């Protein structure tokens, strides 16, 4: 019995048994290129109007802003990384995964409503939830709820400026929107990425 040639393809079962590499984020994508082009065009327009001094003034202010934001971005990224390691994958997948149903959307909505902090906290946490088993729908519900309902901003800014009645009615009217957005996110995700959805269901 002859040995299989090294050129022959590996059996399908061996290919399926190998772990699939995770999604690699490219450091430079289309969004980065578009932003870089817009920055270059804007800088050229400012230079034409205000000269080199105007461009350097904007760069100085932006570098000062960047130095203030950088620690927050670093803290948010570290928070997301630690959360993805701390949270139990099985419980998150059961509570917020594709099979969590309406309860998963409600949990995501409630979590987003009470999540404190700004975007440097919310988006790393959302990314960590996706990494540990939450599906698109529950994560969308969380982000939309944090955006529309977030109690921190309501207490610190909205109630003192807009008043209690306005804030309460705005929250009540906004309550169904995260759930609807999450349900629509699940519906679209299953149809755009049927293979990924079937793999998640099998897992």
TrEMBL record:
Pfam families: ArsP_1. Residues 1-24 are annotated as: Disordered. One of its GO terms (cellular component) is plasma membrane. The chain crosses the membrane at residues 28-47, 59-83, 103-122, 129-149, 169-189. It comes from the Bacteria. Keywords: Cell membrane, Membrane, Transmembrane, Transmembrane helix. It is found in: Cell membrane. Its main location: membrane. The keyword Transmembrane applies. It is a multi-pass membrane protein. Belongs to the UPF0718 family. This is Permease.
């Amino acid at each position: 019995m002859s040995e299989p040639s090294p050129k022959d393809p590996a059996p399908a079962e061996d290919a399926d048994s190998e772990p699939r590499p995770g999604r690699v984020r490219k450091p430079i994508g289309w969004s980065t290129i578009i932003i870089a082009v817009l920055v270059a065009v804007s800088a050229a327009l400012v230079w034409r109007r205000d000269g080199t001094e105007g461009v350097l003034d904007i760069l100085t202010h932006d570098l000062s802003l960047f130095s203030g934001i950088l620690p927050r971005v670093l803290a948010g990224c570290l928070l997301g990384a630690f959360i993805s390691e701390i949270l139990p994958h099985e419980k998150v997948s059961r509570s917020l995964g594709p099979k969590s149903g309406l309860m998963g959307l409600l949990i995501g909505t409630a979590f987003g409503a009470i999540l404190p902090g700004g975007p440097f906290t919310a988006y790393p946490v959302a990314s960590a939830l996706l990494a540990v088993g939450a599906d698109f729908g529950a994560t969308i519900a969380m982000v939309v709820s944090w955006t529309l309902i977030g109690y921190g901003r309501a207490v610190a800014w909205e109630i003192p400026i807009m008043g209690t009645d306005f804030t309460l009615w705005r929250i009540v009217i906004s309550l169904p929107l995260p759930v609807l957005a999450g349900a629509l996110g699940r519906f679209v995700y299953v149809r755009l990425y049927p293979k990924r959805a079937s793999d998640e269901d099998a897992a």
